[in-house]
Each structure stands twice: as structure tokens, then as C-alpha cells.
Amino acid sequence: MPANYLASIESLASTEMLLVMLVAPFFLAIIGSFIAKTLTKKHFKKAGIV
Predict the structure, then answer these.
(1) Dihedral sign, CA of 20, 21, 22, 24?
(2) What are the Cα distances from residue 37, in Å, to 9, 27, 29, 45?
């Protein structure tokens, strides 16, 4: 890989940004699961399953 490409990638990928890229998906997945649980419960209740 060209040296200038690696230098630009290294400038974008700071330690803080990598930490955010690893932690944020975990918390967003938890939030998404609560939203999906609410929507699923609503539809199951409407169908008479729950």
C-alpha cells in the first residue's frame, strides 16, 4: 500500500475513534433490541398470541 494512503488512514483512526467504533455498536444493539421487543410484543398482542 502507498505510504500516503497509510498516513491518511492513521490520521483518521485515532485511539478515541477506535474505542467509539468498538463500544457504540454494543450500546446501539441493546437499544435496538428494546425497540424490537416493544414492536414485536405489540404485534403479538394484536394477533392474540400473547
Answers:
(1) positive
(2) 38, 16, 12, 12
d(CA 19, CA 10): 14
Q: Write out pLDDT tens, residues 5-26.
A: 888 888 888 888 889 989 999 9
In eight-state DSSP terms, residue 27 is H
* Residues 5, 25: Cα–Cα separation, whole Å: 26
C-alpha cell at 40: 414485536
